[in-house]
Specification:
single chain; 435 residues; alpha/beta; Rossmann fold; six-stranded parallel beta sheet; 17 helices; elongated
């Protein structure tokens, strides 16, 4: 079976590589010539554990190909996945420009039955626009080429994307015809060996499922952060509260960790897009408005703790930041809480020493921003350490050595990964979230 993946961003590159891994003939297409040449040369534009090795293996096996010419590869493709970006507009809505450009190209060039599958995260109703765009181009050509559209939203966690794709807890597919359903069933059959579920449904429900899932997870995070802030005021411990409510089978123990806010390419964008979709239909998502507001405020919690600890006098202080990416095992800096902290510290006259195992540069130029060689280098002469991203190498540092290196022994744990009593016994001042 031959398929085409349009877009070699995070979703497209992971999806295409994983389909090739189970024997599918895959061509990944992108109009960025430099990017495609880099991938062909073995330079992977994103960091995802295991992805580079899997790409090389499948390219050598002749199952994975890369191209910049979509028209050239459409003739043999049975299924075409659209995995281009849908960045947020200024009003929070998803920008469908690239999705509709793909639909237009499909309509201009297909000559046999093709299923165009939307893998990008798109608002409800996008499939109708895609279908109309393809049909308009076919009408211009004066040809009657059968086609279907389908929705197959991705549920990949950055840092665990390959596992999520190869062994997912579910695959959601929205279709309009039996023919499209049969073709998608064939495509996903190799994964059925893992006994996961393929959930077929109508297309609007599939489109909504993606937004609803991410918004629910974002809601859990903001809820726990809201409770954590209250815990600090009343003298409770959010970790104890988490264990107490997580043991309730109706609630479960996932996504109940308090911290310094969520970021990334999905949750912030999808919450905004769902809020905008509701407004377009005359409805207000009151809960999601609160989720977004809480998260924006939570990204400032580390700065606020520093400000309070130093009685509002941060100028001339040196602050170490451990972790830049919005989560471990990725280099994704989109909406990262670390950026909020850095952008508040630098104007306050603070020297900021940052370290991340993968992220080695930022789109910030400032003489007071130093990229450290490791966590210990970042802590040198620091007045405080702020743990922002819970990379594994930060889990068990040499605290006695760090204590000697620091100017003042203050640790602000933005992810609650350290033992408060242990650090206090070692002579540190410890501040967590909700403790």
């Amino acid at each position: 079976m031959k398929i085409v993946i349009i877009g070699t961003g995070y979703v497209g590159l992971v999806s295409g590589t994983c389909f090739a891994e189970v024997g599918t003939d895959v061509t990944c297409v992108d109009n960025n010539i430099e990017k495609i040449n880099q991938i062909k040369a073995g330079e992977i534009p994103i960091y995802e554990p295991g992805l580079s090795e899997m790409i090389k293996r499948n390219v050598l096996a002749g199952r994975l190909h890369f191209s910049t010419d979509l028209k050239e590869v459409l003739d043999e493709a049975e299924v075409v996945f659209c995995a281009v970006g849908t960045p947020p507009d200024e009003d929070g809505s998803a920008d469908l420009k690239y999705v509709l450009e793909v639909a237009k190209t499909i309509g201009e060039n297909i000559n046999h039955y093709t299923v165009l599958v939307t893998k990008s995260t798109v608002p409800v109703g996008t499939a109708k626009k895609v279908k109309a765009t393809i049909q308009a181009e076919l009408d211009k050509r004066g040809v009657d080429v059968p086609f279907d559209v389908a929705s197959n939203p991705e549920f990949l966690k950055e840092g665990a994307a390959i596992k999520d794709f190869m062994s997912p807890d579910r695959v959601v597919i929205g279709v309009e015809s039996q023919k499209a359903k049969d073709l998608m069933t064939t495509l996903y059959r190799p994964f059925l060996l893992n006994n996961f579920r393929v959930l077929f449904m109508d297309i609007p429900s599939a489109e909504m499922t993606k937004y609803a899932a991410n918004s629910m997870l974002a809601t859990l995070i903001s809820f726990m952060n809201d409770i954590a802030n209250l815990c600090e005021l009343v003298g409770a411990d959010i970790d104890m509260v988490r264990k107490g409510i997580g043991s309730d089978v109706r609630i479960g123990n996932k996504f109940l960790y308090a911290g310094c806010g969520y970021g990334g390419s999905c949750f912030p964008k999808d919450v905004k897009a769902l809020i905008h979709t509701a407004k377009e239909h005359g409805y207000t998502m009151q809960l999601l408005d609160a989720v977004e507001s809480i998260n924006n405020a939570q990204k400032e919690v580390l700065y606020n703790k520093l400000y309070k600890q130093f009685n509002g006098n941060l100028r001339g202080k040196t602050i170490a930041i451990w972790g830049l990416a919005f989560k471990p095992n990725t280099d994704d800096m989109r909406e990262a809480p670390s950026l909020v902290l850095i952008n508040k510290l630098l104007p306050a006259g603070v020297s900021v020493r940052v370290y991340d195992p993968i992220v080695k540069r930022l789109a910030i130029e400032n003489d007071n921003l130093y990229f450290a060689n490791d966590a210990y280098d970042a802590a040198k002469d620091a007045d405080a350490i702020c743990l922002v991203t819970e990379w594994q190498e930060f889990r068990l540092p040499n605290w006695p050595f760090i204590k000697q290196e620091m100017n003042r022994q203050l640790v602000i744990d933005g992810r609650n990964i350290y033992d408060k009593k242990e650090l206090i016994n070692l002579g540190f001042t410890y501040l967590g979230i909700g403790k």
